[in-house]
Every structure is written in C-alpha cells, then in structure tokens.
Amino acid sequence: MKEIEALWEEVRELSLGNSTRVEQLDSPPTPLQFLRDYVSQNKPCLISNATLHWPALSSWSHDSYLIQNLSSAAHVSVHLTPDGQADALVPLNDATLCFASAHVQRMPFNQALNLITNHTSSLVAYAQQQNDCFRSEYSALSSDCESHIPWATEAIGSLPEAVNLWIGNHRSVTSFHKDHYENLYAVVSGEKHFLLLPPTDFHRMYIKDYPAARYSYSQETGELTLELEKEARNVPWCSVNPYPSPENKESEMSKFPLYFDGPKPFECTVKPGQILYLAYGYFGLKILKKFDDFLAAKKKKAELKKKKKKRQKPSIDTALDVVGQFFSMDVVGIGYLWTGLLPCRPSMWFHHVRQSPDAGGRTIAINYWYDMQFDIKYAYFNFLQSVHYQSTHVPTLPETASEDLDSESACDSFAHGFKDELSADGSVANLAGTSIKEE
C-alpha cells in the first residue's frame, strides 16, 4: 500500500523534519517545554550541558575510584559474548539465524573492569543488567549522579521506575530494539552512537520470529558456545542490520529494501554531559511471560491511579499529564552520545547503538526509564502493526525466520534484561585470571 510509504514521509514533513539530525538543545528545557515540544509529540532530542554538574563525569574516569568504591559491593552482572552481539541475530551452525542472548555472569567489579578493558580477550564483556542495576548493584556510586532528572520528572509526573548503568567497550553493539519507557540516556565517559527509527516505520524493521539461543561458557576450553534453549521458543526481532559488511551489503539491501531504500535514519552522537530523550510509541511484542505480567501490573497500577485522581481536584500537573498523552510520532535516526549530553529518547522508538571508548578503553552511560502512558498513541501503533503491508519488493527472508504479523511485536530490551537475570547460573573459571562463582 502506497499509503504506508506516504505515512513515513508525512511524519517527517509534519513533525520530525527532513534532516537526519536529532534536534539539539543547548541547555535543559523547562518541564513545560519538554512536555509540550518533545514528550507530547513523541519526538527525540539531544540536550547539552545537562549533567556537567555530576561528580561522575570527573570521578568515573579513574579506574581506581570505581574499584575502591565498589570493592565492598556485591558482585556485578556481566554479559559475555564472543563478538559483542547480545540480544541480536547470530548465525547458528553457519547457516540458520537465531536470537542469541549473552552468558550472564556475576563477578567482583575489578574483574569485570579487567575483562572490559582487555581488548585482546576472546570474550567481549559488557557490565549491565536492565533491572534497575544502578540503584542495586552500583548503589555505592549513587551520590555521583542524580537519582532522577528533575525537569523530566516534573514533566512526566513520576520518578523513574528503573535506573541502569552500562559499562562496555567499542566491541559491544546493540541491535535495533525498542523500550516500553520514556528513556533518558546520559553518557558519562566515551561516546554512544545511535540510529533512531519511529514506530510509524514498523514495517521497515522486518520483524520476524527467530529461535531463541544462549551462549554458555566452558571451563575446559575457556570458550563460549551458542546453543538453542532447551525449552524451544521463538523471539520476534528486527531482521535489519544497518551496518552490513562490504561483502554482504548488496545482499542485505536486496533482502530489506523498505529499510535501505526508505527515508534516511536520524543520527545522534551522545557525549559526556548530554542527555538523549527517546520517546515511546513503537514496537510491542510479547516475548516473555514475565514481561506480560509486568504489563498487567502496570495496567492495574494505572487503574488505581485513575480511581485516586477522581477523588482529587484537577491540578496543573494533572493537566500537563493529560496533554502529554496525546499525539506523538517517532523518527528513524542515527545517534551519537557524548559526555555532558543527555539524549532524550521517546519510548518505543527503534534504536541501534554503537559506542566509542574513552582513553581508558571503556564507555560508561546511565539511563533513566520513566513509565510510559499506554494511551491513544499505543492504540494507533497496535493498529498500524496489524496492517499487512506487502512492498513491491519481495525480500528473501533469512533462514529460520518466519513472519509474525499477528502477535504483539516489540524488540524489547527490558524483557530480556529480566530473562538474563533469572537464567544466569553456574561458575566461570579463568575469565579474569581467577575462578568466579555465580551467586
């Protein structure tokens, strides 16, 4: 249907603009400006000079500071892969594609840092866990950052539900996915490079079902092995790799013409001191039962909140909250995150992330997940994804992939964060020179 392709263009003309750059602010907005111009429009923005007052921007550049402050803390979660691709599509047995999850191991922070900065290692380590890990595993560092973003908290009307810390290197890559949150992403050290795609461009992501697999570590060989999960299940995931190798580029472009021939994505580099805002409104897949339970709990919470509001007089906060529930669209884009910048990412936007390390060989970032409104925009998106769209181009699906047009689809990182937390077990030897026991 030509109407679908017209939608991609019209969203950009009316709301997002035809540039491939994410709109940038020189300083943090007022709560009203943030709500009016970005949250209510589901429009991303990059905010400079947003976190320059954080002690973390200077303190966390020193490994000794981090190690000293986290020496008495419980072990931290580290995701291990052979190539930096976790929660991504990876060939299994050199043929079939599967959705591969990292091996998750808990270890002392100093050993985790050694793995991250050891670029000659056969393992790629990424210290992260999408379960509010900053306020649990890294609580000893809480005084170095704000517990929430004040102007965002006032605009959205609630405190963040989760705050996550990410410590990795240039080898870690995050494939296209979305979050069911209003996402504010701040870089502390190094740079983050984002590609952003709006929910309206759902069909350009080629969401397919892939068999779930997981890396396991062998103490005998010191290597990771990719194996299908014992309880077979399929995971709906984005098929597009926006950065194919030169030898595969022509093949990938022929498989996914809606992505490669469509509107160019938006670009954004986030540096220290900046915040990227990524709004919601894109993909919604049922991947895990635990995530279904999470959504049910959110719905119940919203109903209780609604009953409570009926007994209260309307306030300016309530009015702003209502305004924030209407009409928002999202954009395709590439984003780079630098220290001092806070990228604001609207919820449910598709985003792909790469990173560049600092002089110490690591990239550090912290993101704030604020509760999203499951409102009329979410209903519009569900309707859009139910529309079967067949391009004039008929791509060849990757082997083992099957089209999944009927299920709710969301390449959702949050669900997989809980999955990884629950499934980590066993022990790993010789990862950082010593034997590590899972706790």
From TrEMBL:
Please give the InterPro entries that the UniProt record associates with this protein.
Cupin_8 (IPR041667), JmjC_dom (IPR003347), RmlC-like_jellyroll (IPR014710)
Q: Where is the JmjC domain?
A: 125-385
SUPFAM superfamilies, alphabetized:
Clavaminate synthase-like
Which residues lie in coiled coils? none
The protein's matches in Pfam families, at most eight in alphabetical order, are given as: Cupin_8
What PROSITE patterns has UniProt attached to this entry? JMJC (PS51184)
Its family remark reads: Belongs to the JARID1 histone demethylase family.
Q: What is this protein called?
A: JmjC domain-containing protein
Organism encoding this protein? Fagus sylvatica (Beechnut)
